[in-house]
Amino acid sequence: MSTGKRHTKTQSSYAFESSTSNVAASQMRNALNKLDDTMPNDNAASARFQNELDSFFTLFRRYLIEKNSKNKLDWEKIKSPNPEEVVEYKIIEQQPENVSNLSKLAVMKLNGGLGTSMGCVGPKSVIEVRDGNTFLDLSVRQIEYLNRQYDSDVPLLLMNSFNTDKDTEHLIKKYSSNRIRIKSFNQSRFPRVFKDSLLPVPNDVNDSLDSWYPPGHGDLFESLYASGELDALIDQGKEILFVSNGDNLGATVDLKILNHMIETNAEYIMELTDKTRADVKGGTLISYDDQVRLLEVAQVPKEHIDDFKNIRKFKNFNTNNLWINIKAIKRLVEQNALELEIIPNEKTISRNGHDVNVIQLETACGAAIRYFNGAHGVVVPRSRFLPVKTCSDLLMVKSDLFYLEHGALKIDPSRFGPNPLIKLGSHFKKVNDFNQRISHIPRLLELDHLTITGNVYLGKNVSLKGTVIIVCSDGQKIDIPNGSILENVVITGNLQILEH
């Protein structure tokens, strides 16, 4: 089985150069061995757990080496990609569509996130976003329509985390009669590390959930391989995997990009879209040592942060809509070739009534672009990037700016200009509070900018146009009455209007 093969390869990589990191690495290895001993060694779960600890140790060891290395990004070597490295969508959309290519396609949604940032319990994919449909409902409807329309068999894969796995397995049962094959697998579960001692937080396989973390979507290559789902796709004749975030409602199957990938023999395509001032921190493609690479803000030297945020210099950013050759994934995983940039993410957990600083080492799948042959970016319309990260985003996708067509959100053709900028304050952070304060979605078709902060409630049939700013003072309340039309206004203080 694939897991055994990878386990052997990982074990053979433990010898590494002598350095000041050796002591920390040795202590970590001993601690992981003790942690491994707490897992009953008589089933497939044990083999998976051991594999995950080995993969984590490889990542941790590399983190120590890179942390002490002087090999940092040389800003002077950064160049703008050439026209072959970043292609405009308007060039490829002129090519005819070849529907038969759908037989080579599988779709994956990254489904490891919880809805906690929006005040919800369970997977984020089950938050209702439009007309009673959840993120997952919309993904299923899109692919089911595709399969029905073209008599194809495009499967949907869900990469869950240990946080979302059980709930998702229960939820997908409702699609059993739909014309779509849904498979799910878990990404890795890695131990968090104490920042001061650089030792793992858990002492036992059954330690509390906050002792562990899913290591970012860069883990998809290893986890897809170890799960057996990668080989299953190859056996089905699938060649290309379209990967996107589960909360990006613009990430639909695009036949033009699929055809372009097959015609150019590219092993990896990253969808980019034009930066706005709201996207200045988004990762961008660069040419570095004659190689296409993803540059993330965390890699940028402090003295060049302003350069990185300059939307004239770095015009596009990564949408995390990725098209990847499936056999190339297998080749690179088996070669242990995917050394993705490590993103140390600091967190705080509670232990014995005290806050403790911990580190989780993460990777991003976009960073893998430099390992694939013929990899390049495609600059797509902004409509293919419609993430819902906050209730501000939720307001927009629920509004009349969009209509629903076969599970996909389409912009109203009468809308002029880019999507509005919407900023809702902390009173609207959680979905329940959002639904109470905006129980009826206002009309936003002619809106440019909206800011609402404080104790504000919107009535029925409200229209917002131009720039609307509503700021409620502390201890006060603002009620926007039914039928209000607010255009280019600023409302502050305290307002309760009685309807006539």
Summarize, please.
By secondary structure, the protein is α/β, with parallel strands linked by helices.
Helix-and-strand structural type: alpha/beta
CATH class categorisation of the largest domain: Alpha Beta
Give the low-pLDDT segments. Answer: 1-18
In this structure, how is the largest beta sheet organized?
A: 8 strands, mixed
Radius of gyration computed on alpha carbons = 24 Å
The percentage helix is 25-40%
The average pLDDT score comes to 90
| N→C terminal distance | 73 Å
Supply the number of structural domains: 3
Description:
This protein is of the alpha/beta class. It folds into 3 domains: 2-67; 75-384, Alpha-Beta Complex (Spore Coat Polysaccharide Biosynthesis Protein SpsA, Chain A); 391-496, 3 Solenoid (UDP N-Acetylglucosamine Acyltransferase, domain 1), CATH 2.160.10.10. It is 26% helix and 26% strand. The chain has 13 helices and 26 strands. The protein has helices spanning 2-11, 22-36, 44-67, 89-92, 135-150, 165-171, 220-227, 229-235, 255-264, 305-308, 326-334, 391-398, 431-437; strands at residues 86-88, 105-111, 128-130, 133-134, 156-160, 182-186, 190-191, 193-194, 212-213, 240-245, 268-274, 284-287, 292-295, 316-325, 343-351, 354-362, 376-379, 402-405, 408-411, 421-424, 447-453, 456-458, 463-472, 478-480, 485-493, 495-496. The strands form 8 sheets. An 8-stranded mixed beta sheet has the order 1-17-11-14-10-2-5-6, sandwiched between helices. Strands 20-21-23-25 form a 4-stranded parallel beta sheet, with helices on one face. A 3-stranded antiparallel beta sheet has the order 8-16-15.
